[in-house]
Amino acid sequence: MTDWGHRRTIEPRGFSGMIDAYERVTGRVTYAMDVALPGMLHGKLLRSPHAHARLVSVDASRARALPGVEAVLTGPDLAARDDVFPYFGPIFRDQAVLAIDKVRYVGDPVAAVAAVDLDTAQAALELIDVVYDELPPVYAVEEAFAAGSPIVHDEPPRLGPTYSDIIVHTEGGTNVCNHFKLRKGDVDRGFAEADHVFEDVFTSPPVQHVPLETHNCVATISDGVIDIVTASQMPFMTRAILAEVFRVPQSRVRVRIHTLGGGYGAKSVKIEPVTALLAQAARRPVRLHLTREEEFVTITKHGVRIVMTTGVMNDGRIVARKSTCLFNTGAYADIGPRLIKNGGFATGGPHHIPNVWVDSYAVYSNLPPAGAFRGYGVNQAAWAYETQMDMIAERLGWDPLAFRMRNLLEDGQTVMTGEPMFDAHFKELLGNAATWIGFDAAEPPARIGRKVRAKGLSCIVKATVTPSTSTAAAKLNEDGSLHVLSSAVEMGQGSDAVLSILAAEGLDMPIGQVSVSQPDTDVTPYDQGTSSSRNTYSMGTAVKMAVADIGQQLLDLAAEQLEVSQSDLEFVAGKVQPKGVPDKAILYGDLIRGSRSGNLLAHATFATEGGLDPETGQGIGSVHWHQAAGAAEVEVDLETGKVDVLRYHAGVYAGRIINPVLAELQTEGNVAFGIGQALFEEMVFDGGQLQNGNLADYMIASIKDLPDTVHCDVVEHLEANEIHGIGETSLPPVMPAIGNAVYRATGVRITDLPITPEKILRGLRARAGQEVRTP
Amino acid sequence: MMTGIQPRPVDAEGKIALTLRVNGREHRVRARPTHTILEVLRNEIGLTGPREGCGVGMCGACTVLVDGHLLSGCLLLAALAEGHEIVTIEGLEGPNGELHPIQEAYIAHTAFQCSYCTPGFILATKALLDENPDPSRDEAKEYLAGNLCRCGSYVKILDAVEDAAERVRGR
């Protein structure tokens, strides 16, 4: 099915696009859900109808008796077993595989069934009798944070082995499962010295990732090995968690990943433990594939409330900022305790502020668990500080562009985590954005009939997870073709293409001679995970190092066979030759065959250094800083409140662009993703019950929501000789750029996302009322 | 457009015999009367190009052509598809795997990322060009608004549709 002829002709330089494009347009690309095994059963989960309740009893006897049902699991049954550790989570092991003592949100899994088909599994769920004793719930993050709130987890969360950058401050007897502190300079003195101090409140609602492929996996237990094919961005975290749950060495767990139908942070470890336990109980392979409705309550973006206080001088300098961030992490912490660190320090923004104080909290509630989401807390932080930048400029009569330019970080100035900025391009990015959109602070909104147009700007900074580790291996085969063994997850970002290009460049060979593996934890070496816009930089560097090692081995062989010193050799199109002497060139394959080495093998580890002081949040927050700017022109209908984004400029710093069309696609994708969050995406709850958990009631951006013009400014500076990930970076600017444009068009300042027509009309009416009252 | 279903025997598993014409070939399958054409295409006929995204006809990932009309496979009962000509993405290629010009255009513009939605978009593009060989960008947007791409490859999709229209007209 693969069009090898098409592939063979591709050279790395100038290649732009996806390696498996043929499979992708013919519908033949394989997702985990396409894997069907002989004898495979179908799993289903029974979910709690209550937001907070004690689990009195679960009686599954009638379900077990239903013909076609091969396994039924309940939390109390799992808790009674010595061979199972029934809790999981990436930081805290606070989530039961199936509820044991309590349920903590509407949708919390209570029992699991594996049956011969989905209809039978569904019928079995209806035969499980559960008795609940309801408890007072808590939903709003301010209420969950306040003294006297119902407590979601009675015991302090159990910390397990986790990532090296995690800082944990847990507050017992409260719903706070982590508190991140940043203390830079002397914020009280900064406010005392400031000519003006402004305090504002900004909120972002929970939204869902909506990968079109929902969570799914197929688990088998064979020969004592837990073998799972799953849609996850985190193969090694999945392996670690399964090893813990089954109390076996990690070498007895095999995790394989196919290309994902979208991830956006949603796909870490969620359904794998219960599916593997079902497969064990049924002694047959089991597939679990969540419905769209289940996906909505499996993982969300954090709803956040940020109180931001900023002190400025009359000359436009920002001298102090204090942020209190309440991240609603829902019923289970997931990665929230780390996300609140990155989202917390991100409130310092891309500005040089000498005095910064941040208190950022992950707060449990009885809503679905929140976790990683494209932007990783920076969306919510940037919504606050980039909206407030315009609000301050407006209050003081300043040009919002000039106010930003006055404060944007330059090389050598300290970022919020106290480290010196380097490779800063904020002013270039924002300048390009303002020029392209034609931003002029003095320009009044343009009125066309009942519609009004205006422009808005934003600029952001984002960390990439630091420290972090990627490892890769490479095999140069006896025909001169190359295998790259990597655990990077292809999820549409084009990882396979990018790693192929970097590997092919390193050995000057056609890209069609390179194959990049899919993750298989039995075979491919460790990677921390495909997240945090880290893959091209971290895995790309590991691959380049491994390939460079192969290159050195080729030079050793060629120097011996040609009797030429290594410094006089060069790689040319799959051959080694004495410099400028193509007649003496030897094919890689011939070198390998001549040496009787069978193949050339290499592996490499790329680990970044850094980390923050647990009390001050000072240190190395990011190995380098991801930078982006946005500019939007919007049109607001004053009668309906509807906002159309007419034009959008997305600027992002890439260092070096590896695959131009994919760089554009990621950037354009962020614009579509951001327009949804700016204008309409919001999970709406009635108490703990989600009201719009399906794609009829929950809107994501369609092709009609896209501006007529999306301008991508992917900035390259080859002299920096470094790759910056761009998967998420251009997303956080979208929401404040649109919000600022809506304000300039209408005079209505919205600080709580999304910017709905209802809020705009309410704002317009309030303004009209004020104008009438003004004499 | 759909004909009525005739009563027919149900087996021990609650399934009925169906004869479906998919991509020009006849398939005899057994399915429950409640099964959708999406379920039958994937689970009985082994075509994985149509994919469930929402289950309620809103995302277009399960798009199939039924007698040339765009339909959501998750909403059409398999039994109602009998007697009709069903085309999935797998039916667009030539006999030796030659790509349809629309598929060529999608590759030329890399009009996809995770590509879960791609078969639906390509079939929607085919239906659009069958109706209107030279659509404006706005007409294309209107027509494709029933297909969702969460990766947001929309700019490249519109470029691919324009290019595909030229390629199809050039044949």
Label this structure with key terms.
heterodimer, A: 775 residues, alpha+beta, Aldehyde Oxidoreductase, domain 4, Aldehyde Oxidoreductase, domain 3, 3 domains, seven-stranded mixed sheet, five-stranded mixed sheet, 20 helices, 33 strands, disordered N terminus, B: 171 residues, Ubiquitin-like (UB roll), DNA polymerase, domain 1, 2 domains, 5 helices, 5 strands
Would you kindly provide a written description of the structure presented here, covering whatever features stand out?
- The complex is a heterodimer of chains A (775) and B (171).
- Chain A is an alpha+beta fold.
- In chain A, 28% of the residues lie in helices and 26% in strands.
- Chain A is built from 20 helices and 33 strands.
- In chain B, helix 2 (101-108) crosses helix 5.
- Chain B is elongated and about 50 Å long.
- The relative contact order of chain B is 0.15.
- The model of chain B has no long low-confidence stretch (mean pLDDT 95).
- The interface between A and B is large, with 57 and 53 residues.
List the helices and strands and how they pair.
The complex is a heterodimer of chains A (775) and B (171).
Chain A: H1 4-8, H2 21-25, E1 41-47, E2 53-59, H3 61-64, E3 69-74, H4 75-79, E4 87-88, E5 95-96, E6 102-103, E7 109-115, H5 118-125, E8 129-134, H6 141-145, E9 176-184, H7 187-193, E10 196-204, E11 216-222, E12 225-230, H8 235-246, E13 253-257, H9 272-282, E14 286-289, H10 292-296, E15 303-312, E16 318-330, H11 336-346, E17 355-364, H12 378-396, H13 400-407, H14 426-437, E18 446-448, E19 451-462, E20 469-476, E21 482-485, H15 495-506, E22 514-516, H16 535-562, E23 569-572, E24 575-578, E25 586-587, H17 588-595, E26 600-607, E27 611-612, E28 619-620, E29 626-637, E30 643-655, H18 660-679, E31 685-686, E32 689-690, E33 709-716, H19 734-746, H20 757-773
Parallel strand pairs in A: 1-14, 12-13, 16-17, 21-22, 30-33
Antiparallel strand pairs in A: 1-7, 2-6, 2-8, 3-7, 4-5, 9-17, 10-15, 11-12, 11-14, 15-16, 18-19, 19-29, 20-21, 20-26, 23-24, 24-25, 27-28, 29-30, 31-32
Chain B: E1 16-22, E2 25-31, H1 37-43, E3 63-66, E4 69-72, E5 85-87, H2 101-108, H3 118-131, H4 137-144, H5 154-169
Parallel strand pairs in B: 1-5
Antiparallel strand pairs in B: 1-2, 3-4, 3-5
Helix pairs in contact in B: 2-5
